[in-house]
């Protein structure tokens, strides 16, 4: 759309609880099989307006806090024990916030369309499930100000409920995800809970398919 854009990457280090490994759930296996058979990414992706005055540093800090709060967002695939891949949740790492500058003379409506197109392109872009973190984020900057945020999430770790929680964390709950793939198998991030005996644990809320790992807090995958 634009003759030239400039993109930079801001490092975003993060750390959080819940590190460990576990076998893939049946739901994750089903999604991966569907991805192989259909070629569809099953990503969740969309563009959102950024309130006036928000800085790159603020968005990067929000991104880091999001990764810290949700162990499932730190899940990638590992080699497993020889019987196939497993899920691995990292206790720390570093991702990047993409900052895309568009020409100052661009019309704001065209900038909005550019952000939407970027979200759609990322919707269709495959993750390297062994290397990439499950959340990708970009901001579009126009005339020195951030105007749009593009959020993309690997569908192996979120469903509609989890997406809503993440959007709420980022203050985007009322905006939704434009370009979200509909009707795909899903899962939700692990939540903290306390058992009747007072023992703190992690479980995957509402699904037998959510990422669940063993670690400092034992994960108990719900079955139904």
Please give a structural write-up.
The chain is α+β, with helices and mostly antiparallel strands. The longest helix is centred in the middle third of the chain and has 16 residues, at 108-123. A hairpin with a 5-residue loop joins strand 9 (190-194) and strand 10. The N and C termini lie far apart (48 Å). 24% of the residues lie in helices and 30% in strands. A five-stranded mixed beta sheet has the order 1-6-7-8-3, sandwiched between helices. A three-stranded antiparallel beta sheet has the order 2-5-4, with no helix packed on it.
Task: Please write out the topology.
Layout: E1 6-15, E2 20-23, H1 26-38, E3 44-49, H2 56-69, E4 75-78, E5 86-89, E6 92-102, H3 108-123, E7 135-142, E8 145-153, H4 160-169, E9 190-194, E10 200-204, E11 219-220
Parallel strand pairs: 6-7, 10-11
Antiparallel strand pairs: 1-6, 2-5, 3-8, 4-5, 7-8, 9-10
Task: List its traits.
224 residues; alpha+beta; five-stranded mixed beta sheet; three-stranded antiparallel beta sheet; 4 helices; 11 strands; globular; disordered C terminus
Helicity, as a percent range: 10-25%
Note the beta-strand portion. Answer: 25-35%
Biggest pleated-sheet summary: 5 strands, mixed
Q: Categorize the overall geometry.
A: globular
Helix count equals: 4
Quaternary structure: single chain
Please compute the radius of gyration using only Cα atoms: 18 Å
Structural class: alpha+beta
Give helix and strand order, one letter per element, not per position. EEHEHEEEHEEHEEE
Strand order, sheet with most strands: 1-6-7-8-3
Given as residue ranges, the uncertain stretches (5+ residues, pLDDT < 50) are 175-224
Quick check: average pLDDT?
79
Amino-to-carboxy terminus distance: 48 Å
Beta-strand segment tally: 11
């Amino acid at each position: 759309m634009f003759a030239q854009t400039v993109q930079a990457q801001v490092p975003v280090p993060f750390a959080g609880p819940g590190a460990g490994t576990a076998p893939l759930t049946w739901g994750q296996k089903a999604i991966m099989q569907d991805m192989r058979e259909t070629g569809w990414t099953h990503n969740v992706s969309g563009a959102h307006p950024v309130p006036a005055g928000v800085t790159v540093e603020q968005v990067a800090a929000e991104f880091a806090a999001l990764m810290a709060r949700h162990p499932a967002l730190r899940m990638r695939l590992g080699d497993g024990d020889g019987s196939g891949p497993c899920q691995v949740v990292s206790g720390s790492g570093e991702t990047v916030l993409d900052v895309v500058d568009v020409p100052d003379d661009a019309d704001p409506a065209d900038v909005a369309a550019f952000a939407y197109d970027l979200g759609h392109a990322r919707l269709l872009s495959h993750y390297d499930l062994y290397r990439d973190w499950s959340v990708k984020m970009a901001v579009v900057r126009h005339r020195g100000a951030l105007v749009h945020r593009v959020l993309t999430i690997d569908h192996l770790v979120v469903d509609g409920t989890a997406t809503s929680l993440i959007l709420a964390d980022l203050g985007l709950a009322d905006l939704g995800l434009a370009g979200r793939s509909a009707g795909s198998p899903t899962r939700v991030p692990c939540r903290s809970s306390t058992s009747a005996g007072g023992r703190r644990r992690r479980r995957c809320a509402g699904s037998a398919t959510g990422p669940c790992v063993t670690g400092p807090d034992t994960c108990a995958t719900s079955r139904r």
